LIM and senescent cell antigen-like-containing domain protein 1
Amino acid sequence: MLFAPCCHQCGEFIIGRVIKAMNNSWHPECFRCDLCQEVLADIGFVKNAGRHLCRPCHNREKARGLGKYICQKCHAIIDEQPLIFKNDPYHPDHFNCANCGKELTADARELKGELYCLPCHDKMGVPICGACRRPIEGRVVNAMGKQWHVEHFVCAKCEKPFLGHRHYERKGLAYCETHYNQLFGDVCFHCNRVIEGDVVSALNKAWCVNCFACSTCNTKLTLKNKFVEFDMKPVCKKCYEKFPLELKKRLKKLAETLGRK
């Protein structure tokens, strides 16, 4: 009671071995990493922003501040490009090619749980995803001159996978129909789809060549044909001539009114 130090963690007297650290006394079993609670008495610690941390936790905190990875094998910071194996980062030189035994680099490829150097992997003829640059073991999407994991072939705007739906290409990027229309496309007034070929501009609207037709008899029209606008749609001359006289007068009057405006 008079002379035994008190543990900074539990407040009890320390009888026996004392850990002196961070200007305090601790039971060996009470002196733990502030993050992972690993006992530090026999493995040492690192001061980090007023905390006592084990070295792996210190490295992770330091790496987070630098925007870098921590090797999951040696727990040191990875200064160069990491090797991603089973979704975890490593120093590449911890591994060797499963085929030729060569020490690996960050370009190594994972296939069926094994790692291969790039030359050995290329000899196997396994497709590489155009997005993540990793091997594709299951279903392959062939598009835009590349091969993709199904979940990685996505719209450049909304980043949603196409999953077999139609995509539209522009300047090396793929877009879903909605965002292609919003960003670049002429949309046909009739079918409401992006016009991929020639565009017919008529009645202040855009039309597919095959969609620009008489709204009454469905006869295909061109800009060389005579047609009349009715209900914001084209009507060929023959159908127009069959309209009742009163309707023609209303159409003529409407056209003159719009012309004056």
